[in-house]
Amino acid sequence: MWSDIFTLPVQIYYEDTDHSGVVYHPNFLKYFERAREHVIDSNRLAQLWNDKGLGFAVYKANMIFQEGVEFADVCEVRTKYKLDGKFKTIWHQEVWRPVGKRAAVIGEIEMICLDKNKQLQPIPEEALT
Q: How many structural domains is the chain composed of?
């Protein structure tokens, strides 16, 4: 079952773009990462790492680019997630331009939970509540 949809505004800066003023494609991974951190909460992520030695890593990432995002846009990253077994989450994320008729970029990111020794661990209940 998918979670609610979470939104995060993202300002597009000149440094995010290529020579044509369009966002350089790997930067969307950064926007998606920020949105996931916003959903889980930075303090909770730090606490999981410091107290339990648990963190998350990208296992798989797929992206579809449907429209360019440009310098000075203030976009919205829309994020929802679901558990996929006890070790993995799937995150569906979209970047929307201010007047977009469809998502500019769609990402499907799979995350796994690992301990400090890089061993697969069950996702703790408190990570996504």
A: 1
Helix (H) or strand (E) holding 41: none
- The phi and psi torsions of 58 (rounded to 5 degrees) equal -70, 130
Judge whether 1 lies within some domain. no
CB within 8 A of 57, min separation 6: which ones?
A: 111, 112, 114
Separation in Å, CA 79 to CA 9, 26, 66, 74: 11, 18, 17, 16
Which residues are tagged catalytic? 18
Alpha-carbon distance of 109 to 98, in angstroms, equals 23
Decide if 37 is inside a domain.
yes
What is the CATH classification number for the domain harbouring 64? 3.10.129.10
Select from 69, 89, 66 the least CA-distant residue to 9: 69
Segments forming the whole domain that contains residue 42: 6-128
Q: What does pTM read for this prediction? A: 0.94
Q: pLDDT for 9-21, tens place per residue?
A: 999 999 999 999 9
